[in-house]
Design a protein that fits this description.
The protein is mainly alpha-helical. The chain has 5 helices and 2 strands, in the order αααααββ. The protein has 2 domains: 33 residues, no CATH class; 101 residues, no CATH class. It has a two-stranded antiparallel ribbon with strand order 1-2. It is extended and about 80 Å long.
Length: 142
């Protein structure tokens, strides 16, 4: 601390103190990792979206019955695939609940139950625009 009083650059000294505190806390406490949700959107989903976009562009360029039927078939297959993916995801969550219950992991068990109860809740941010008026933004991808 004595050499800190002699130093002329106080900002650099504060940065050194801050870095020392962060590294000490990281070593003693560890890092808290946020829980990331598993994404059910995979390569096959992207393929279905590309097929839908391509079929829609064909239908918009030439709106005959053949293109309309093709678009409806691609949409039907895509929605079926998305629905099955959602069912698989829900089944995996239920299996995780069962395993947490069986191994007496009570904290994760009740946390998962509360996630089911709450459902999806978008995060809301309030910011100001150029004039200083409040602008409300909803972030759907947290």
């Amino acid at each position: 601390m004595e050499d800190l009083r002699d130093s002329k650059d106080i900002n650099r000294d504060w940065e050194n103190i801050q870095d020392n505190i962060k590294t000490t806390a990281k070593e003693s406490l560890g890092l808290y990792k946020l829980k990331h949700h598993k994404q059910r959107f995979d390569e096959k989903c992207l393929d279905f979206l590309d097929q839908m976009n391509h079929a829609k562009m064909q239908w918009l360029q030439n709106s005959n019955q053949k293109n309309a039927d093709n678009l409806n078939n691609v949409r039907r297959e895509a929605s079926r695939h998305f629905r099955n993916k959602e069912k698989e995801d829900l089944k995996a969550k239920i299996d995780e609940l069962e395993t947490n219950s069986k191994i007496k992991n009570i904290r994760d068990f009740y946390r998962s139950i509360s996630d089911f109860k709450k459902g999806f809740q978008p995060k809301t941010n309030v910011i100001k625009d150029e004039r200083g008026d409040l602008v409300r933004l909803l972030q759907y991808f947290v």
